[in-house]
Amino acid sequence: MAYLTPNNAAEFWNRGFVLHNLRLEADEVQAALAEVHTLDYKPIFGEVYDDEMDEFREQASLTTLTPALAAIHQRVVNVVSTNDECVVDETSWHTLRSSPGGADQAVHRDFPNFEASRALLTHELVQASVFVALMDDTFLNVWLVWRSSRTNKLPHSEA
């Protein structure tokens, strides 16, 4: 079943993002959380262009999806399946975790204008990211830099 309607697709193009609830059951979330806790996390960057890694922010890259994460991946595929040109790469999933004591920083992914332009020109594709929040009180900062300088802070319960 596809959940991304033509109106959602228009919202994506007009606003730069779409919020969607994957309708995960509590046991699915708990299974995914248990799986991501066992991954090999490594510190990631602090400030943009900073060589010093942030000891409080860690990332693990998944080369093979665990069973619970594969089920979530399939939900994402179902969401975007209304558009035959959407490709969801199952080898590009990453998990993030923040430890207490670090500076607040919401999950985010930057696509600089040159990257988006190159993708559009060379592949006729526009890059996009999917963020799945498994924990309460997870926020996503959305900077609509290519459209304006405003910032939206969205609780995961809306996503």
Sequence stretches where pLDDT stays below 50 over 5 or more residues: 145-159
The N- and C-terminal alpha carbons lie at a distance of 18 Å
Portion of residues in helices? 25-40%
Share in β-strands: 15-25%
| Sequence of secondary-structure elements | HHEEHEHEE
Query: Radius of gyration, rounded?
Result: 16 Å
Could you say which overall geometry the principal axes of the C-alpha atoms support? globular
How many discrete structural domains? 1
- Strand pairing plus helix content: what structural class? alpha+beta
Q: What's the number of extended β-strand segments?
A: 5
Mean pLDDT: 71
Number of helices: 4
Largest sheet: 3 strands, antiparallel
Q: In what order do the strands lie side by side in the largest sheet?
A: 1-2-3
Summarize the model shown.
This protein has 4 helices and 5 strands. It has helices at 6-15, 26-37, 67-80, 113-123; strands at residues 42-45, 53-62, 93-98, 139-143, 151-155.
Defining traits:
30% helix; 5 strands; two-stranded antiparallel sheet; three-stranded antiparallel β-sheet; alpha+beta; 159 residues; disordered C terminus; globular
Topology:
Elements: H1 6-15, H2 26-37, E1 42-45, E2 53-62, H3 67-80, E3 93-98, H4 113-123, E4 139-143, E5 151-155
Summarize the structure in words.
The chain has 159 residues and is an alpha+beta fold. It has one domain (6-158). 30% of the residues lie in helices and 19% in strands. The protein has four helices and five strands; from the N terminus they run ααββαβαββ. It has helices spanning 6-15, 26-37, 67-80, 113-123, and strands spanning 42-45, 53-62, 93-98, 139-143, 151-155. A three-stranded antiparallel beta sheet has the order 1-2-3, with no helix packed on it. A two-stranded antiparallel sheet has the order 4-5. A hairpin with a 7-residue loop joins strand 4 (139-143) and strand 5 (151-155). Helix 2 (26-37) crosses helix 3 (67-80). The longest helix has 14 residues, at 67-80. It is globular, with a radius of gyration of 16 Å. Residues 145-159 have low confidence and may be disordered.
